[in-house]
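Lecture notes, continued. The same structure-token format from the folding unit now serves as the input rather than the output. Read the line below as a description of shape only.
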């Protein structure tokens, strides 16, 4: 009579490792996206606080603020 094996199959370990890895990657992407949104909002607030003259000095117009904030947040 064969005794039941106390070891789990290698495939099960590989599957569990893959699931853990995928979960970590997903959480990492969600955290990165949240940080990017926060930075974009912060940049938007700061640029909106500038005068038109200050914006002109850095090469922006009021209409460019949203695009600049989004690009600036994703570039970090």
């Amino acid at each position: 009579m064969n005794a039941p094996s106390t070891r789990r199959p290698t495939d099960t370990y590989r599957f569990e490792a893959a699931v853990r890895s995928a979960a970590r990657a997903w959480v990492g992407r969600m955290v990165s996206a949240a940080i990017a949104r926060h930075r974009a909002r912060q940049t938007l607030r700061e640029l909106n606080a500038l005068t038109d003259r200050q914006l002109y000095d850095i090469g922006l117009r009021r209409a460019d603020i949203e695009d600049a904030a989004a690009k600036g947040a994703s570039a970090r």
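Point for the exam: The longest helix spans residues 10-48.
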